[in-house]
Backbone:
């Protein structure tokens, strides 16, 4: 959906990241710019801030600080399963950031290890609300082409089913998938093809984290299982409630 450049901010003498979206993705540039401005107002220690946004030669873009640390995905590749206490601490930090956004009326919709940056060992959520900024007309068009906005292994059942107006409970589900992988080394639902992954989200029983990680505290295992409920109303009442259980 985009190309990311490492760049030098000449005015301020700092290194930044510029994400340039493909023009066919953000067809309504005015709406995209407006939504990015709203997202840029989010101020939280666990959310990567947006510094600027705009459009050049038909290409919409936004600018964020350059983070020299790794992503959570890279940490998984390097370390495999994380210590239980570290996995839960990072999940709590991510939940803090998501909760702040939810209170502002913004849902991420693409929580995954690649979008979690690690800076001095702390979690920073990147690409916040970009799916929302693209707009429902773009999502309808992408879905009609056989794709969807999101990553199958971390998509909630309602998002996988193609619902356009997903709520905070969808982010909670995605975070539970990320935490499950941090503890066990694999996401809760996986398969050879994206379609098969989506089918498992929709119909497969919720796996127990303790099967692969027996030392997981029962309270943590129970919290993850509830966050992975197929029905959004059966999950924790809020991302903050999920965090408290962890």
Residues:
């Amino acid at each position: 959906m985009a190309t990311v450049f490492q760049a030098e901010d000449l005015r301020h003498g700092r290194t930044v990241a510029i994400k340039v979206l493909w023009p066919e993705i953000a067809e309504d540039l005015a709406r995209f710019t407006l939504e990015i401005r709203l997202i840029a107002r989010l101020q939280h220690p666990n959310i990567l801030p947006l510094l600027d946004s705009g459009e050049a030669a038909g290409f919409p873009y936004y600018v964020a600080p350059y983070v020299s640390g790794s992503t959570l995905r890279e940490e998984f590749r390097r370390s495999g399963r994380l210590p239980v206490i570290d996995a839960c601490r990072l999940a709590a930090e991510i939940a803090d950031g998501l909760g702040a956004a939810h209170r502002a009326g913004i849902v991420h919709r693409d929580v995954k290890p690649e979008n979690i940056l690690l800076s001095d060992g702390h979690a920073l959520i990147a690409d916040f609300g970009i799916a929302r900024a693209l707009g429902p007309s773009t999502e309808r068009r992408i879905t009609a082409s056989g794709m969807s906005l999101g990553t199958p292994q971390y998509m909630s059942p309602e998002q996988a089913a193609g619902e356009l107006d997903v709520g905070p409970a969808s982010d909670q589900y995605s975070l539970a998938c990320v935490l499950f992988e941090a503890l066990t080394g694999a996401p809760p639902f996986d398969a050879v093809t994206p379609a098969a992954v989506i089918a498992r989200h929709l119909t497969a029983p919720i796996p127990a984290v303790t099967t692969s990680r027996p030392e997981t505290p029962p309270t943590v295992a129970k919290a993850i299982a509830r966050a992975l409920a197929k029905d959004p109303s059966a999950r924790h009442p809020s991302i903050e409630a999920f965090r408290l259980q962890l």
Notes: Residues 140-147 have pLDDT under 50 and may be disordered. Strands lie at 2-9, 14-21, 52-56, 59-65, 116-119, 122-125.
